[in-house]
Each structure stands twice: as structure tokens, then as C-alpha cells.
């Protein structure tokens, strides 16, 4: 009432200005904002949200992993959500369990969130028809088709696999071995697809894929196996942690990197540039990916008629010290 009196307008007009009604004249809007500033008025957020029919809360469904990729996406998404003046409700799921994902999505819907960020790596999960409806959903790992208003922001994972393989073949290696991430992860499968399609296109032999679990230990174990084969001269690891374990195994086996074996990782973790031999890797800009994605989600919440948005963020090869031409005779 005080703001309305100071601005010389009705309380209804003040409410329209606070709620962003575009049909209020610029002159009246300026008077109301000056009155608000003079009186130090702070709008009641709960009341405003009730009028707008929104909770100003975004739900986040996350695998709860401490691995670099998922955790970096979570940190960046949280910052972007709070910068957009939304609250956040996080539900962590159990890795690789689609039933847990479905239950967690229902939990977020029941909370009345305005939108959901899905930071899940699994390849597939199902929901009953209408379980989400047109609630805006942002997927950070490929389209799931779980909402009529789904937006997607993901890195070009397959391109990363192609760039890694092309780089190593371009150096003269006869073929490229691959240590993949775990089965069922979209990012792992797409990186492997990019690697495989490049070898096929080049007519290069396709060695059996060794499967890790993203950890340095699994990379080390795969590396011990590869180090015992003198024909191995190039390896693409599905992430930098596995590449680091692989480098340790090659060192212990007396295989020089890159003199005997070249290694490429994926992610460009902060440590990659500071190893004893700085790691050649595929860089994906996870903070940009999450920030851009949340921006699209907020737009989908506030402009629900605009649908079917997707941003495929490019990745890039960063050449450092772990790749070189193969040794003579290979």
C-alpha cells in the first residue's frame, strides 16, 4: 500500500509492475520502481510465486558421482541455477539403476518443481506416459524423450572419439587401442562409437575394447595388459583418470611415452597439463555446457511455447606431450 501511495497508482498496478506485466507504461513502471527503491520495499517472493503459479525451484537429478565429468557439471549447474534466481532441489540416484532414476524423477515432480535438470549418464530408463507431461526438462547427456518440453545440452562425445583416433592415425600409428568407460554410460558409448567409426573409415584394424570404470585403477589394469603386447603403439582412454592409470602401467613396464606408446585421454581435467608428461586429451567445456543448458531450461520454464531446443557443444583436441609418431618398425 505504501508503494502504491508513493507512486500515485493502485495496488493492482504495483502488483502488475512487480510481476513484469508488459502492458504497463514505461512512465508508470519507472514511478513504481522509484517508490520501491525509496521505501526499500522487498516483494514477498512466496506471494509472487503463488500468483505466477511457480515454485521458483529447479530439481536436479544426478548420479551423485565424484568423477570429474558429473561433478563438474553439477557445480556449474548449481551456480547457473542460483544466478537465475531459482532455488535447487537435488536428488542423487544409484549408478546404473533405471528404477532409482524413475523414482527420483517422480519425487521431484511431486515437489512441484518448475523444471528438472537430468545429469544422468545411463543409456535408457522408462516412465509411464504422462508422468512428466510438459514439465520442462534439461538433459545434459542426450535426449531421453521423457517430457514434451525437453531441452538438450550435451558435448559432442562421438566427435571427441573421432578426433582422438584421427590424431593418432595421422601420426602414423597402424591402429589405436581403446580403454572405454563402463557399459551403459552414454558418454562412454558415444566416445567408443567415434573411435570405431574412424578406424573403419581408415581401414585400420579394430582391436578389442578394454572396459574400465572411469577410475585410474581400471586404467592401470588395462595398461598392464596393453603394456605386455609389443605391437601396441597408440591408446585412446575414455577419460583422463583412466589415461593417468594407463601411463603409470606403461612406466612400470618400461614402455616409454610417447617414444613407444602414445596416449590420448578425454575431459582435460585440471591435472592433465601438469603430469610428468603432460597429457594429450580431448577438452570439453563442462561449465559452459551446464550454464548454457540451464539458460535454455529457464527459457523453457518462462516461455513454455518455445520447445525442442538442443545445443551440441563442440569438443577439441589438446595436443601435449603424450603423443608422437610410432617407433621405427611399427
TrEMBL record:
Keywords of this entry: DNA-binding, Transcription, Transcription regulation
Domain HTH lacI-type: start-end pairs: 1-52
Key word Transferase present: no
Entry's Gene Ontology molecular function annotations: DNA-binding transcription factor activity; transcription cis-regulatory region binding
Alphabetical list of PANTHER family matching this protein: HTH-TYPE TRANSCRIPTIONAL REGULATOR GALS, LACI-RELATED TRANSCRIPTIONAL REPRESSOR
Protein name: LacI family DNA-binding transcriptional regulator
Native source species: Cellulomonas humilata
Amino acid at each position: 500500500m505504501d508503494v502504491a501511495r508513493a507512486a500515485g497508482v493502485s495496488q493492482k498496478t504495483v502488483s502488475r509492475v512487480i510481476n513484469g506485466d508488459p502492458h504497463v507504461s514505461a512512465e508508470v513502471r519507472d514511478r513504481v520502481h522509484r517508490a520501491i527503491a525509496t521505501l526499500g520495499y522487498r516483494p514477498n517472493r512466496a506471494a509472487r510465486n503463488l500468483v505466477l503459479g511457480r515454485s521458483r525451484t529447479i530439481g536436479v537429478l544426478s548420479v551423485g558421482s565424484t568423477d570429474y565429468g558429473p561433478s563438474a557439471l553439477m557445480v556449474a549447474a548449481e551456480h547457473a541455477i542460483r544466478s537465475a534466481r531459482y532455488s535447487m532441489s537435488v536428488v542423487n540416484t544409484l549408478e546404473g539403476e533405471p528404477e532409482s532414476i524413475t523414482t527420483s524423477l517422480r519425487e521431484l515432480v511431486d515437489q512441484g518443481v518448475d523444471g528438472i535438470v537430468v545429469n544422468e549418464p545411463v543409456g535408457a530408463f522408462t516412465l509411464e506416459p504422462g508422468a512428466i507431461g510438459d514439465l520442462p526438462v534439461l538433459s545434459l547427456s542426450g535426449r531421453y524423450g521423457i517430457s514434451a518440453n525437453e531441452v538438450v545440452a550435451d558435448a559432442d562425445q562421438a566427435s571427441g572419439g573421432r578426433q582422438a583416433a584421427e590424431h593418432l592415425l595421422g601420426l602414423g600409428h597402424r591402429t589405436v587401442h581403446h580403454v572405454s568407460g563402463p557399459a551403459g554410460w552414454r558418454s562412454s558409448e558415444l566416445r567408443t562409437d567415434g573411435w570405431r567409426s574412424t578406424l573403419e573409415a581408415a581401414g585400420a584394424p579394430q582391436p578389442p575394447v578394454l572396459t574400465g570404470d572411469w577410475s585410474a585403477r581400471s586404467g592401470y589394469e588395462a595398461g598392464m595388459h596393453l603394456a605386455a603386447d609389443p605391437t601396441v603403439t597408440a591408446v585412446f582412454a575414455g577419460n583422463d583418470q583412466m589415461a593417468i592409470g594407463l601411463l603409470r602401467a606403461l612406466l612400470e613396464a618400461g614402455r616409454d611415452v610417447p617414444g613407444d606408446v602414445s596416449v590420448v585421454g578425454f575431459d582435460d581435467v585440471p591435472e592433465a597439463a601438469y603430469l610428468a608428461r603432460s597429457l594429450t586429451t580431448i577438452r570439453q567445456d563442462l561449465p559452459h555446457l551446464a550454464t548454457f543448458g540451464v539458460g535454455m531450461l529457464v527459457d523453457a520454464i518462462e516461455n513454455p511455447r518455445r520447445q525442442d531446443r538442443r545445443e551440441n557443444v563442440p569438443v577439441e583436441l589438446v595436443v601435449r606431450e603424450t603423443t608422437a609418431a610410432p617407433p621405427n618398425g611399427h
